[in-house]
Amino acid sequence: QEYELFLYQSPKADMDDFLAREAALVRHTIHMLASRARLNVLPQHALPPRRPKWTLSQHRCAEEFSALAVVSEALGFSHHARDLLGTMFFDYAQFDLKRAQTAEMLTAAIFLFAEINGIDLTSLTELYHVLGSNKRSVNAAYRRMRETLGCVPFDPRYLSEEGFVTMLCGAAMRKVDEKTES
Questions:
Q1: According to CATH, where is 1.10.472 located in the chain?
Q2: What is the Cα gyration radius of the chain?
């Protein structure tokens, strides 16, 4: 199942690519399987639509990619996570380039990416202003991006290695809690 989710990010990837990119997920899965045999730990939810085909040149958003890279690196996002954030942003830009190139949409992309990966940035209120926006307009942009892209919790198109592990551990703990309660 994890490999199938990974294919949302890299449709042409083979199993070797998956094992190299998601090493922590594979280790955690093996640990879960070894310690909790017959436990289906991946959450079952509706899958998102496939990513849009890119018709725009990435050069059209060079400044935006740069701003996202600087802020997300300061937040501690891995190189791969920063690439996925840029991918999510550019997927949105395919639908509405003019709106994508605003401060509130750039900030919204960071918040949405963080949420998809189980990272809570809501306590970082200064993040709303880093790129020159405010909470109200960022929240509106966030909802617009989420709806336009059809994002779901732990969206496999934009799920980082840390997000995969968070999803796996959270689902496993819910299963354990369910067994304990019954």
A1: 58-149
A2: 17
Q: Is the pTM for the entire model greater than 0.85? A: no
**DSSP letters of 11-25?**
TT--HHHHHHHTHHH
Architecture of domain 58-149: Orthogonal Bundle (1.10)
Return the exposure string of 35-61: e unless at least 16 CB atoms fall within 10 Å of the residue's CB, then b: eeeeeebbeeeeebeebeeeeeeeeeb
**What residue type is 109 in one-letter code?**
A
d(CA 180, CA 173) in angstroms, rounded, equals 10
Token pair 């490999």 is at which residue? 3
- Per-residue pLDDT reduced to its tens digit, 41-50: 455 566 788 8
> What burial class does residue 20 get, using C-beta atoms within 10 Å of its C-beta: 0-12 exposed, 13-18 middle, 19+ buried?
exposed
Distance of CA 159 to the CA centre of its chain: 4
- The token duo for 102 is 């605003």
